[in-house]
Amino acid sequence: MNVPRKYGLVRAIAVLLKLLAVLVLILGIVGLVASLNFGSQLALPQWISVSGAVALPLIALLTAMQLYAFGSILSLLVKLEENTRAMVQPPVE
Hints:
Blueprint: H1 8-38, H2 46-88
Helix pairs in contact: 1-2
């Protein structure tokens, strides 16, 4: 398939969304550790630091899954367009 690559910006956005998803997941794990470590230093009640330690990674996981899925959908759409265009073009002799 000698199909010219198009939609470079959409490809870049898809990669950026996937990288952002990984970053959000890492920040969620860092937030979990920070919530457990610094909750007692800030004189917060125990239930606040524990609930934050549970909620933050779950929210980060859900957000990361959504970002990664949207990036994957964009990649899929670009590949679908390439394959469709390759099927329509006459074969090169």
